[in-house]
Amino acid sequence: MRKMMTAAAVVLAGLPAMVMGETLKVKADAPVPEVMDALQAAVEGAGATVFARVDHTGGAMSVDMELAPAQLLIFGNPKLGTPAMQDDIEAGLLLPLRVLVYSDADGQTWLAYADPAELTALEGIAEDAPYIAMMQGALKKLTGAAAGM
C-alpha cells in the first residue's frame, strides 16, 4: 500500500509540469478588462464556445485580498478538442483552451497561454497531429486580435 501511495504521489507531482509547459505571451497596450472583452469577442466571432470567464482579481477581492488585474478565458471548439481527447482522454487536462490576461508589476498587460504542443507529452498524441497546429494558429490569431495586432 505504501509503495502504491508513493507511486501515485510521483505521478501526481509530474502533472503540473505536463500541464504547465511553455507559456507563450502576447503584449497588449490596453487595460485587462478591455483586452479580455476583445479576446472574448474574437473567440465568439471565430465560432468557438466560451465556457467561462474567470475574474481572479474579483475573487481575491471577495476574500479581502489584493491581486493585480487578472482574468482567464476558458473556451474551445469541439471539432478540435474532441479528436485530441479521442487520441488520449487525458488531453482533457489541457482542454478546453485557456488564455490568461493579466497586468504585471509594471502595469503592462499580457495575454498568456500554454502551447498546445504540450499535448504531445501525452502518450496517445502524435507530434504531427493536425489539431495541434490548428489550435496553435487559432490561439495566435485570437490573442493577436485581442492585443490589437
From TrEMBL:
Signal as a keyword of this entry, yes or no, is yes
**Where on the tree of life does the source sit, at the highest rank?**
Bacteria
Looking up Pfam families in the UniProt record yields: DUF302 (PF03625)
Supply the name of the protein. Answer: Camphor resistance protein CrcB
Coiled-coil positions are none
Q: Which organism is it from?
A: Antarctobacter heliothermus
- InterPro entries per the record? DUF302 (IPR005180), TT1751-like_sf (IPR035923)
Q: Where is the DUF302 domain?
A: 54-116
Q: Where is the signal peptide?
A: 1-21
